[in-house]
């Protein structure tokens, strides 16, 4: 069977997967959906009314990015609740599964059923494009929430992974004064080589009061209550680290500081672009 003849199911997710379901029709002969908010808008696609019927029909199942936010349920935007254990139980043998940061419990179940798993976030092209989209959206949110220009303003980026690098590069393009806070000395040196200031996380308390925009990408508590007490009241904090983030949001609320845990940015700011990126990852994986 050619892979384009396989039945592909889009399960759960946000606007990215809604757009993806639509463009999959150009590549696959049979496309289905379950628990996909807005799927009723799409023509030429089969909609299922139960998890069991959907997954027993599918040869390929495409799940959200991220796969889960709470470690217990599949990410859905409608009222459908899909428990990960139920999802694992419904996996059909010798099928294919795509998703972003697929839960380890599901990967274990998939292995016992000979399900071939592809993780979008382990695909280099998708991870890079996702970082770019996330960076653009994070900066857009910061600008929207602030009363200040970014031009010549002090911006602190915590972490120096893919997303942090993408944010810093775009901030630099806006003529902001960018500082990178990172644990590793090598990361700080690399940041300095790119024209940023580099500080250790231990130095954050000394610098934080001068920063107008703060972006956190570190999935650990780095902006605790003691540090938040030193933050400029007019500053904006955008935290894109995995829930619950690395910011004490209660302390921010108490101090009247604008702070937002901003997850799933690509699905909110550029879902159509993100859908094309995911489609490319699916096709490339199946062709290989």
UniProtKB/TrEMBL annotation:
Q: Which residues form the Dipicolinate synthase subunit A N-terminal domain?
A: 7-121
GO molecular-function term, one example from the UniProt record: NAD binding
Specify the D-isomer specific 2-hydroxyacid dehydrogenase NAD-binding domain's residue ranges. 142-241
Which UniProt keywords are given for this protein, alphabetically ordered?
A: Oxidoreductase
Q: Which Gene3D superfamilies match?
A: NAD(P)-binding Rossmann-like Domain
Q: Which domain of life is it from?
A: Bacteria
Q: Which Pfam families match?
A: 2-Hacid_dh_C, DpaA_N
Q: Report the SUPFAM superfamilies cross-referenced here.
A: NAD(P)-binding Rossmann-fold domains
- Record-linked InterPro entries: D-isomer_DH_NAD-bd, DpaA_N, NAD(P)-bd_dom_sf
* Enzyme nomenclature, EC number: 1.3.1.-
Cite the NCBIfam families for this sequence: PRK08306.1 (NF006162)
The name of this protein is Dipicolinate synthase subunit A
User: From what organism does this protein derive?
Assistant: Anaerotignum propionicum DSM 1682
Q: Which gene encodes it?
A: dpaA
